[in-house]
Amino acid sequence: MQAEIITIGDEILIGQILDSNSKFIATELNKIGVSVYQITSIQDDKKHILEALKNAQSKADIVILTGGLGPTKDDITKLTLAEYFNDTLILNDEIVEHIKTMFAKVNYPFTEVNKNQGLLPSSCTPLFNTVGTAPGMWFENNKKVVVSLPGVPFEMKTLMSLSVLPKIQQTFKLPYILHKTILTYGMGESIVAERIEDWENNLPNFIKLAYLPSFGNVRLRLTAKGISKEILENSIKVEVVKLQNIISDIIIGFEENETIEVSIGLLLKEKQQTIAIAESCTGGSICKRITAIPGASNYFIGGVIAYNASVKINELSVDKRLIDEFSVVSCQVAEAMAKGIQQKYQTTYAIATTGNAGPTTDDTDTTVGTVFIAVATPAAVYSEEFFFGKPREKVIERATNKALEMIRKEILKN
Amino acid sequence: MQAEIITIGDEILIGQILDSNSKFIATELNKIGVSVYQITSIQDDKKHILEALKNAQSKADIVILTGGLGPTKDDITKLTLAEYFNDTLILNDEIVEHIKTMFAKVNYPFTEVNKNQGLLPSSCTPLFNTVGTAPGMWFENNKKVVVSLPGVPFEMKTLMSLSVLPKIQQTFKLPYILHKTILTYGMGESIVAERIEDWENNLPNFIKLAYLPSFGNVRLRLTAKGISKEILENSIKVEVVKLQNIISDIIIGFEENETIEVSIGLLLKEKQQTIAIAESCTGGSICKRITAIPGASNYFIGGVIAYNASVKINELSVDKRLIDEFSVVSCQVAEAMAKGIQQKYQTTYAIATTGNAGPTTDDTDTTVGTVFIAVATPAAVYSEEFFFGKPREKVIERATNKALEMIRKEILKN
């Protein structure tokens, strides 16, 4: 089963926005066993739309268009679809009523322009938009499907999930698909690949492996395709156990949306332990990641962004002589910061960063990209020196990822 | 002058990554006066590449392909380009030497597989890749150009900037293009549009306006196209002055990469003033934004992430009775936090947040989405109550944007 995605509108072609709609649609189609053959971004222009549609239908069973369904005159998708299917627009009273209700809710005046959104090609099945005014459209002929969706991401996503994906599953006989995500942390894609090479080569042919690297972690996604749900489930289970035996040290979770900060939160809650964070060069980035998780207040007591040396001395009890002797960017100062906040906030663990994120060497002589990360545990404090290169945002991001990795390892030990 | 961008590879089609390469190329082409007619993402498959190339060349003067140039057998772009141009691959010694040097630098063994990267269609002009191993290729015939670039974003961007854009400008007679960005803050796109409607409608026909909304701000980009640089420059100047007269209250800068945190930094440096930040519900997000700017240590003294009530009391001198009487999520506590950190860190300004980012109401009864933001100035402290809805990450992001907007206004006054 092949699909093509067509996005209509100039915003992508002038480089104004990233085409995140296509990414969402492609991900969701792949999950239910539909491959995406091509993604095409085109202008809001009748000739161009007609041509792209014809091209797409010559190869794909399913064509999904997004964009070009707004109330203004620029949006000509609907008229073009009517022309393509040799059809005419008719007013759909149900849709008009729905739009009126939507406008009334937010006290917007309903105008003739808005009424036009209820005009739809007569041959389409309207897809009700419960979160916006532009309805989606489903066309079906000769066992081929064309779907048109609004371009507003939230509306498109809602229509995809509630209408389009179920309708595709009803219309086409699709294989059963099972996904399992394994989240690894702290190793690059190529090293992970090397460690699991034998296992990967011996996967049954109905199970595919994808590497999804991002932000210091690599997600491994197993996709099994077949007709028996039971066989797929069992096979995936067997393969995950085998994998755990090979890389247990870097696996941190199995949820699709799991991140290292989620994993840290679960561990701390389970162990009823707490954490505090003292950040210099990372400037709040570690605190932000930890507090992004709902319920972080159960284990995260607080943090100090000790940017100025005076804050390190006064708030974290770092001995000024350490700074004078070793400079603020040193393992001695990182460890003193971690100990300082651990004692002050009375937490099980603390983590501290000090470094030079660049672009200039500032008041210390430290090379740009050098970061010291210290971890304080109930028993000890230790630190490591890292060199995270440049530019500034990468240094901060890498230091944050490494700090989270270090603290997670420490929590696991205790 | 029309271009088409073709990205080759499965990562985009399975929804694994966003097509950020196309966004970059489209932006850069538009800047030099080349319109992008279509962006097409296709599989790493010979037949598909040939077909997409033919289609693209039938409409576009310039076709830029990215991806499919790695050393492994999956990457068949080069062979396909040779076939398309009825050409053969020959070994380019200069390129091979360059790759050897790149490998030696990082102590990687140079293998036969890597040598293959030096094989190029004989008719192309190789584009030297100074930051990677895969060279770019420039094909020119019948006044039409096909360019092939590696898919690694950093390598693609370097080749675009150093080789492709200058070569396009040499090869084609392009109009003169002038861009001017005006950054506005604190108002939504539709409200900005309403305020400047008359001005926009009266723009000369060679000046186009684009709205680029993101993260609480709207960038207005004026693009003038013509043959006289002088006329364009003068006209843009005139229009910007007119615009300033209409929306001076929301314009915060004119640099393409300017953000509100950059603007705050420039103001504080100029006035030789300082700031400290106390964050509860925003959890480090404001500190992170402020410290993302190089040189922030000149004006940002430090911050406290006061997640637990004990930190608010002990570190920020918030009176426990205020918390008991009004709850931690209150204007009284927000103001006490701001005053507390301003006094402790001895800064000109302080900003504080306390609220409930959700998803649950936690230990207070406050509605999810409620946030109090307080600003302390040399003369006073005040706060405002906001309702930022949900989900959690949006509450945090909106509160952060609003806090930055409030503090910037305050700095401007003093």
Largest sheet of chain A: 6 strands, mixed
Any idea what the CATH superfamily of the largest domain in chain A is called? MoaB/Mog-like domain
Largest interface: A-B, 69 and 69 residues
Q: Which percent bin holds the helix content of chain A?
A: 40-55%
By CATH, the topology of the largest domain in chain A is Molybdenum Cofactor Biosythetic Enzyme, Chain A
From the alpha carbons, calculate the radius of gyration of chain A and give it in angstroms: 27 Å
Helical segment count of chain A:
16
Number of strands of chain A: 17
- CATH level 1 name of the largest domain in chain A: Alpha Beta
Oligomer: homodimer
In CATH, the architecture of the largest domain in chain A is 3-Layer(aba) Sandwich
Strand order of the largest sheet of chain A: 2-1-3-8-7-6
Instruction: Give the overall silhouette of chain A.
Output: elongated
Percentage of residues in strands of chain A: 25-35%
Q: Can you give the mean pLDDT of chain A?
A: 91
Distance between the termini of chain A: 50 Å
Helix/strand/pairing category of chain A? alpha/beta
- pLDDT < 50 runs, ≥5 residues of chain A: none
The tally of domains of chain A stands at: 3
